[in-house]
Amino acid sequence: MSTATHDTQREAPAKPTTTVGKAADYLDQRTSIGVAVKEFARKVFPDHWSFMLGEIALFSFVVLIASGFFLTMFFEPSMALTRYEGEHPASMHGELMSVAFASTLDMSFEVRGGLLMRQIHHWSALIFMASIVVHMMRVFFTGAFRKPREINWVVGLLLMILGLAAGFTGYSLPDDVLSGNGLRITDGVVKSIPLVGSFLSYLIFGGEFPGHHIVPRLFTLHIFVIPGILLALIALHLFLMVLQKHTQFPGGGRTDKNVVGYPALPVYVGKMTGNFFIVAGVLTLMGATMAINNVWNYGPYDPSPVSAGAQPDWYMLFLEGSLRLMPGQGTEWVIGGFTLPLNVLVPAVVVPGILFTFLFVYPFVEAKVTGDDREHHVLDRPRNRPARTGLGVAFLTAFIILALAGSNDLIATHFAMSINAITWVFRVLFFVGPVFAYYVTRRICLGLQRKDRELVLHGHESGRIVRFANGEYIEVHTPLDEQERWLRVNYDAPAPLTIEPKTDARGVKRKGYASDKRWQGLSRFFYEDRVEPVTPAELEAAHSHGEHDELGESERPSVEAGAGSSSREH
Predict the structure, then answer these.
(1) How far is CA 164 from CA 239, 313, 317, 318, 444, in A?
(2) Mean pLDDT across the stretch 393-414?
(3) CA 323 to CA 197: how far, in whole Å?
(4) Strand 262-263 vs strand 96-98: parallel, antiparallel, or unpaired?
(5) Predicted local distance difference test score (pLDDT) of residue 564
């Protein structure tokens, strides 16, 4: 008896030959990073222009970090006094100013490329905030915050708030008249907080305003603390986006169980790379050709100069406008020896608190009044959620009114109008405008939904009037193709919540009925007025026309009648 053994040796994989391949293989053998890269490479991303808004925010942040690194090497965050001896600008020569302001002038006129970098940095900050706001508007109006993305919505809001903080700490650093006035307002807002306001102001400024420590402290926050938290939240935001399936706009073949688009590698990464260079190029062009924040026009900080035209960057104008609209007379109360300055506390703390609280809690409130705990990966058309779209437009209306109110002095000087009249108009609009905007937007959305129903049931008007042999006139409509029909019928129209009776079978009052009743009332606010999507039965009935079905597209009508003829829809 004999035995034979056959050694079957598996063929070894081919060794990489290029330098990049060898480096990648070396790294993969020690970290298994190839698995993550492979998984990411197969990640599918939808192709829609609105998804670029988040990319613009990310790329603007990259430009912010790069330009900020350059500026950090030349800026001196000191409030010690010095006399400026630089040649440019001539108006500042010999002026007494802080070292922070003097280093800003040196950076602008003595450092090669310094002014360009300052302006790129400032424009990047403005575009960064603008892209975040517009991106969040897209997320809100399309319902991209629904399960499972509520956490990412909160992360996005935190990014926006930190962006506001980064902008405020940044434009306060030069210690010029404009930034000093902004810090003076901040000091007043902090001091308006009951009981602890004075102590907080002393802690922040290191003594009485302005003190000698605020610029170094803002510098630390601006270049270290806030960017670090921003980087962590951006990483979390992107991680959650990759971990969850990407949202996609409704259309044929797109469901909550798939994603229609292009793979990350090489298509999407190639597009992102191109977009980055476009964003960086545009920001560089803006920094080179569009002057912004020329601090030498304002001069070093001095509390005495006060003039029209002193506004913060656009994203802080709503807070400025809120302060300008609040009446002063009769709004300071003394309670128990403590002054309660409602003329500062309400516009600077309460109003922004209400606006941001609305944004934070909205996804959870909508989920509660909808009674829907499913995962959603297909976006809503704004018209199909009239209440949400109306609330979003009302929120934006209030924000725009406050921003315009923050420029009431410029409006008055440019148009030769009374600033008091402008202020009163904005006060009325702040309360009336959002309500009017909500009502009009809601009615427009419901009208568009009814128009969609009409299109699905009867098709597009072709402009053709035909007559049959029996003398009957009909209007020939062009039916929708499958993609158009899918877009207009594939949505949900939630009904208001139904709750259990007030008492049980034994007549005992049910616990929690009052809370359920309140949620039901809120649900009616959202969904009492709704337009149901067309059902298959309705579609079949609308397309059944008896002998009219025999009329084909290629048939010529017996008689074509002009406009104004008596007709019947086909």
Answers:
(1) 23, 10, 11, 12, 33
(2) 93
(3) 17
(4) unpaired
(5) 39
